[in-house]
Amino acid sequence: MEIKNNKERKKAIDEAVAKLTDPSGLETVGFQSETDFSMPSVITLRRIVNLSRSVLFPGYYEDKPANPYNITYHVGVAVEELHKLLVGQVVAGFNFSEEGMSEDEKVDLWDKADAIATGFIAKLPELRAVLSTDVVAAYNGDPAAKSYGEVIFCYPVLKALVNYRVAHELLKLGVPLIPRIITELAHSETGIDIHPGAVIGKYFTIDHGTGVVIGETAVIGDNVKLYQGVTLGAKSFPLDDDGNPMKGIMRHPVIEDDVIVYSNASILGRITIGRGSVIGGNVWIVNDVPPGSKIFHDGK
Amino acid sequence: MEIKNNKERKKAIDEAVAKLTDPSGLETVGFQSETDFSMPSVITLRRIVNLSRSVLFPGYYEDKPANPYNITYHVGVAVEELHKLLVGQVVAGFNFSEEGMSEDEKVDLWDKADAIATGFIAKLPELRAVLSTDVVAAYNGDPAAKSYGEVIFCYPVLKALVNYRVAHELLKLGVPLIPRIITELAHSETGIDIHPGAVIGKYFTIDHGTGVVIGETAVIGDNVKLYQGVTLGAKSFPLDDDGNPMKGIMRHPVIEDDVIVYSNASILGRITIGRGSVIGGNVWIVNDVPPGSKIFHDGK
Amino acid sequence: MEIKNNKERKKAIDEAVAKLTDPSGLETVGFQSETDFSMPSVITLRRIVNLSRSVLFPGYYEDKPANPYNITYHVGVAVEELHKLLVGQVVAGFNFSEEGMSEDEKVDLWDKADAIATGFIAKLPELRAVLSTDVVAAYNGDPAAKSYGEVIFCYPVLKALVNYRVAHELLKLGVPLIPRIITELAHSETGIDIHPGAVIGKYFTIDHGTGVVIGETAVIGDNVKLYQGVTLGAKSFPLDDDGNPMKGIMRHPVIEDDVIVYSNASILGRITIGRGSVIGGNVWIVNDVPPGSKIFHDGK
Amino acid sequence: MEIKNNKERKKAIDEAVAKLTDPSGLETVGFQSETDFSMPSVITLRRIVNLSRSVLFPGYYEDKPANPYNITYHVGVAVEELHKLLVGQVVAGFNFSEEGMSEDEKVDLWDKADAIATGFIAKLPELRAVLSTDVVAAYNGDPAAKSYGEVIFCYPVLKALVNYRVAHELLKLGVPLIPRIITELAHSETGIDIHPGAVIGKYFTIDHGTGVVIGETAVIGDNVKLYQGVTLGAKSFPLDDDGNPMKGIMRHPVIEDDVIVYSNASILGRITIGRGSVIGGNVWIVNDVPPGSKIFHDGK
Amino acid sequence: MEIKNNKERKKAIDEAVAKLTDPSGLETVGFQSETDFSMPSVITLRRIVNLSRSVLFPGYYEDKPANPYNITYHVGVAVEELHKLLVGQVVAGFNFSEEGMSEDEKVDLWDKADAIATGFIAKLPELRAVLSTDVVAAYNGDPAAKSYGEVIFCYPVLKALVNYRVAHELLKLGVPLIPRIITELAHSETGIDIHPGAVIGKYFTIDHGTGVVIGETAVIGDNVKLYQGVTLGAKSFPLDDDGNPMKGIMRHPVIEDDVIVYSNASILGRITIGRGSVIGGNVWIVNDVPPGSKIFHDGK
Amino acid sequence: MEIKNNKERKKAIDEAVAKLTDPSGLETVGFQSETDFSMPSVITLRRIVNLSRSVLFPGYYEDKPANPYNITYHVGVAVEELHKLLVGQVVAGFNFSEEGMSEDEKVDLWDKADAIATGFIAKLPELRAVLSTDVVAAYNGDPAAKSYGEVIFCYPVLKALVNYRVAHELLKLGVPLIPRIITELAHSETGIDIHPGAVIGKYFTIDHGTGVVIGETAVIGDNVKLYQGVTLGAKSFPLDDDGNPMKGIMRHPVIEDDVIVYSNASILGRITIGRGSVIGGNVWIVNDVPPGSKIFHDGK
User: Fold this and answer.
1) Chain E, 86-115: which have a CB under 8 Å from a chain F CB?
2) What is the CATH code of the structural domain delimited by C34-191?
3) Disulfide engineering: C256 pairs with which of C275, D90, F133, F167, CB 3.0-4.6 Å?
């Protein structure tokens, strides 16, 4: 491989580098800061997700041997690494988001992040308990499921829910940005897009999952089941004076307990689907639905 | 990074670890066994899939040089590793699934797994032959395809079908759990969710693929083409005495030869789509369709 | 692990290897060539995508420290590696595709690839400028977005658009096959399937994204927004004399400026959606739509 | 890189491979066995050494964080992995060495190896205690040493002694071959060559270390110090009837307590260096030395 | 692999872990600290050495392409990483060594380490200049050397000298412990053991090198050449009141300019080898040697 | 970690980078070339050594399973990779060394390197045959050796001899620089420094090995055994008109068949040690020694 024109190529590359690093081209896409800190790391967050999964479902998602002589050693090491990495990402998240902290607060940022990470660790047993109900719901709802273990190994909804429930907990602890990256990791892996701001009850499951969207202000009760392609979205956005969508408006649906929504149904706007309703596939819902309703598309 | 409160943090972590490893919290999510064995490993199964792809489509999916001086050396090494890893995963699958084996049978489990893995290797040439027809179908069906090679490199359906056909073969050989994990790996990678229990003929293809669901008891003939978002699903589940769906019922459609199903169509229940039919996009089908039908949504 | 029957297993494996490497079984799936060259490498192309992302959005997608003392060093090293790897893949793409080059042209292939890669590098600043408008569009269009930075970190559309805009540029430079592999990498990662041949304007965004399909001959103006599950597809393919779809026909829609298309809508065929139109969710469009139209599904 | 003569090269390679795999050339260098087992793995043994070091000197040689919140978790995980890997290598060692086991014994080999590995683990606290005396000896003997910690971090003798004391323990447990590979790993790393069969007391140290040789049947008391280049070797080997050296003869020196041997001294044969003696640099000793002797080379 | 006696093994392991983590056994070998910091990392220090080598001898020791289009990019990235890693190791070194810092000083430790690392970076061009003279000396002194490049690629003395000169510089900047670990890395790699405290002039070289020892207080002039196995050591150590060697005494030789010392010679104690002397192989020197002397062993 | 003084640090680093990349400082240590090629890669050469070892001693030094079902597959893959990597390093070696090739020759450099690599592969069976005699010699010469297998696993001389015999073969094929790097890799690993130019017969062995030096023009017959620390070196170098040692002079000893040289003996200059002689430890030989001599140091 004897490539010629070394000098011309060098010149072209140097010019491109100069343009690409010129501050004028970095206004939108380059983060500038007076202070010196690390950006959030998607690689580290992926590790945090894997550690969470290995602690919540011991033996399933790890690359370690399955039946440890003493599970305490393994969970202990994983939780310690999880804490340590989380502290760094929480600091990165606060530093990156230009809101929510005064300069004074930034002084104690490492201590604050340490407290948040410790608080998160303390919540892990509760997260495990809720996720256990999700495993049961997935198993009960699918005739093809042979065991709880198969559900944990194979069902994408479990992966999506670990990420969501971890991210939602971090959001409640006040961490900016990081929760959103964590749920997006699951979106990429499973095709299930759950915003960390959504509120989701126990015994929740999604079958197949690809294409499901659950918006930022959606509220889902207990014992709800969705199928692939279901959207719990917004219908329209009130615009602010600049013509941009206003942020922070309740704009996604409320799904009460014991509701089933079949594949590719779209439920849009701050409406309520009443307890025990069944929403058929492909239907398009933009108004409240009373409890116990059964709404179906006309099949052919 | 000078984090304080070392002792308090240690206490919080130790408490969380204690709760997370308490047997009472592991009933649903932790696998316990009297015997000592390895759990199935998703990492190893991913390697098994990659080895299968590299053997079935030499040169395309490997990270080795493309035009080997002697392809036999490369395929030989890959098949040997494939056999070895498969034995271990088959053993893990049998041990994990709490059914299908008496204690006596477990004694000879390694020999049984060896025989299964050897049987699987012997089937690889046939799998290659069927997958070759799938390549041809994808090429013929897409005006954008420039060559068979482009299809193998770029079309997600090929990846999904390698996993499905490998998993289906293992299922026929009696291996529990492992086939389901293998097809879920393709689901995550391609958005195409094919249950390993489905039966699929030759010259099968799916365009784009994201969101396709093919259920456990679906039967698909030769020369069938699906588009993205198509569901071959169940309509309803007969419940058993406990109110849970009954397992093992034929509940997904039969698609006869030469059928095309356009994007986002849903075909639900144990119905039959007759040979040569065309099912339009977004339609919702819950009844039998006679051969040669053309069923379309009313476009706007 | 004391597996028996060593000889029988060896025999079975040797037989399978012999069949799998027999030229008769490799006609469709094995690439043969008189000359000695490397096949395109998906692993290297993934690295090329990561390098492009790290150069276009410095600090976001890298595994390097975030706030470098001197960004020029980092971008310089990345661009140099990008150039070098791209030369190899461009050569591999030309060699693999059996078209577009005479034997004479192959002689100078490395120089040609060097020139193409250099031309691509020179285009990177322009690609950055267009992608910056896409960031703005995603931010403005989503009430849940808190900052440009969150968009770059979390929104799958940005990943899909980097791959598409890189691939489209390579396609314009005449590179075969490689662009298609690059957009398929994003399809797998995001569920968004954009053919590199499509033409897409500035300020383009897709919300959520899973299941979106944008076909080879689609044309999209400026300031267009799509939602998840939208298809810009072909309606039917004219067949050639052999009954196969004809290649190279304009068969996908034209979407003019300022159009919004809601979730799961299908727009099929070489039709035009007029400027400023709004296409509702789940609708099915196969005819031209005049500017300023609002077409909605009847919700329930 | 357009290498020509593809066919000739292929022919040459195929011929070389045929010769290299012909059994006639493998008599000395290729291990053949009727049964199916793994060879000892130098890579795994290196891991075993690293695990031993990390357990014996927590925090020093690991690539994990230094001050764990709970050292028990870390040591627990390391010891478990150490046990597991050791079982495999002990089995490999027995299988490889063609002595010491009847066919009956091979049946229970995994159980035997499990018991040996467990026995080894139980000895680790004692090994730590002896190695602690070696740390003290190295610190006391070198004016350049600032702390015990510096000794553990920097002094090659500590690395060599961990390997030797681990290997010697395994030898006492009856493990063939493996101990020798373990001390050779230290030889390569430190230039200190201690045969695992040697017997070495407490408070032993070697300064600098490169070139030191301690033979198989050497016996060293407590509180002995060697310098670089010292040989405790054999003087001559009685030959057997075939003219080869007889194996298993006591042929290396006995060094009593409190002896110092300066650099490059050679002490050869089954002689005794009496307690408290000082052997000067570069001297050559082939006869017994009474206690309290001081033997020096004539310096210039 | 069906290992039995799971419970007994678990018990044995738990007991060993308990003993190994009991504080009573960690007095000598375990570092305890009230504060929370990282231990020095040999892995990171190895990386620091590799970065230093790649910056000082661009293209030789890197795993990057050799002839970069723009060397500045590469050196810039390497120096930045070098600085960053060095800061962390300097902090670790100060924290680990229990001397030289008051509590007040520890408060500003990160700033202090930053300043030290920056000072080190500023010295790199001078280090390069001195090392260039060492390359010339090695080339001129060996008839087998074909080019400066061969010397840099192949001669272990160059590796040892990079480590020594880097470590000596850090020692002058007041960094504890870290310099000693850095020279020991070279000792392991080359068999050449140079204490970072030694003072060594320009145009220094060592042929072959294995077994060379240069003590802490040795002083070497310009244009000195050593051969393998040479010791510049201490003759005896004054003992303190506790009977231990006194630390910090000048106890190694002074070698003046233009001296050659042949293989395995030992020069011991605070003596001076006068300018231009030649010391023959295997000789043992414990007294001053006047300038211009030639001292040889009687060969046979 | 909140490091301050960002700007000052940046300035210091930028200044150091500028000095380090200034051509004036790169004269000795930086390789400049008009053409565009890769430097020799120590990492790749280490891989080449590992591949050679795995081919010559199948099963011993690999990280693959030991008892392959079909050794031909494994050796075939290894030899192919070995050939490919060697071609690249041979090209790099020729390009780097500024001698031995006209511009015309450089045109065909890849073909030339291909031929050399193919020639080397063809020699591998012969190298294996000679190395087999070295294994036998090591086994016969050491009472501590239990089997040929132990010798191959544990004896550093075998590693040193594989590197030497591979390097010597490449030297005979005319490859510059690369052979020297290969033997230096063994020097670092084993402490045995054999110049690739030396000529060494069959049944050669070295016990322990650390510190052995065998010079460029040494000639060693069959059935020779050395111990640790032996030097076969040069006595003095004739100087050229510039006062530098003349290159290419025969200056190292000739050791005839059946000679034993004990530890730390130095044999210097172009002298001959006659057949069957025994040279004792620590002796210093600078004159011819007649056949059958026994020369010993006076032991104490």
Assistant:
1) 87-88, 110-111, 114-115
2) 1.10.3130.10
3) C275
- Greater confidence (A292 vs D60) lies with A292
Among the listed residues F239, F252, F249, the one whose alpha carbon sits nearest the alpha carbon of residue F194: F252
* Of D264, E219, C157, E120, nearest in space to A193 by CA: C157
**CB-neighbour burial class of residue A242 (10 A; exposed 0-12, middle 13-18, buried 19+):** exposed
Tell me the whole-structure pTM to 2 decimals: 0.93
Give the helix/strand (H/E) hosting A248: none
| The residue type at D114 | D
Cβ-based contacts of E115 with chain F (< 8 Å) = 5
ipTM confidence score: 0.92
Closest-approach residue (CA) in chain C for F13: C69
Out of C25, C193, C237, whose CB is closest to B143? C237
Nearest to B36 among E6, E35, E37 (CB): E6
Q: What letter represents residue F91's amino acid?
A: V
- E residues 107..166 contacting F (CB < 8 A): 110-111, 114-115, 118, 121-122, 124-125, 128-129, 131-132, 135-136, 140-150, 152-156
For chain C, the structural domain boundaries read 34-191, 198-300
CATH number of B34-190: 1.10.3130.10
B249: closest CA of chain C, how far (Å): 30
Q: Does D65 touch chain A (CB under 8 A)?
A: yes
CA nearest to D6 within chain B? B69
Closest chain D residue to the Cα of C110, Cα to Cα: D1
* Interchain CB contact of C74 with E (< 8 Å): yes
A154 backbone dihedrals φ, ψ, rounded to 5°? -110, -20
* CATH architecture for residues C198-300: 3 Solenoid (2.160)
Q: Which of D36, D187, D282 lies nearest to residue F67, judging by beta carbons?
A: D36
Q: Which of B3, B35, B36 sits opposite E36 (nearest CB)?
A: B3
The 10 Å CB-count burial string (b at 16+, else e) for C50-83 is bbbbbbbbbbbbbebbbbbbbbbbbbbbbbbbbb
Render pLDDT for E204-251 as a digit per residue (tens, 0 to 9): 999 999 999 999 999 999 999 999 999 999 987 777 777 777 777 899
Closest by CA to C132, choosing from B83, E210, F68, A20, is A20
Separation in Å, CA of E15 to nearest CA in chain B: 19
Alpha-carbon distance of B57 to B162, in angstroms, equals: 10
D-chain CB neighbours of B9 within 8 Å are 69
Which listed CATH number (1.10.3130.10, 3.30.70.100, 3.40.50.720, 3.40.50.1820) goes with F36-191?
A: 1.10.3130.10
Taking only the tens place, the pLDDT of each residue in C1-48 is: 344 557 778 888 899 999 998 888 888 877 655 566 788 999 999 999
* B7 close to D69: Cβ distance less than 8 angstroms: no
pLDDT digits (tens, 9 = 90+) for F199-249: 999 999 999 999 999 999 999 999 999 999 999 999 877 777 777 777 778
Sign of CA dihedral B178, B179, B184, B190: positive
Residues D161 and D163: their CA atoms lie apart, in Å, by 5
Say which residues have a Cβ less than 8 Å from residue B258's Cβ, sequence separation at least 6: B221, B222, B223, B224, B275, B276
Mean of pLDDT values over F79-103: 85
Please tell me whether residue C194 adopts helix, strand or coil conformation: strand
Tell the CATH topology of E35-191: serine acetyltransferase, domain 1 (1.10.3130)
Q: Other CB atoms closer than 10 Å to residue C151's CB: what's the count?
A: 24
- Which residue is closest to B14 within chain D, CA to CA? D70
CATH number assigned to the domain covering D33-191 = 1.10.3130.10
Q: Which residue of A has its CA nearest to E10?
A: A69
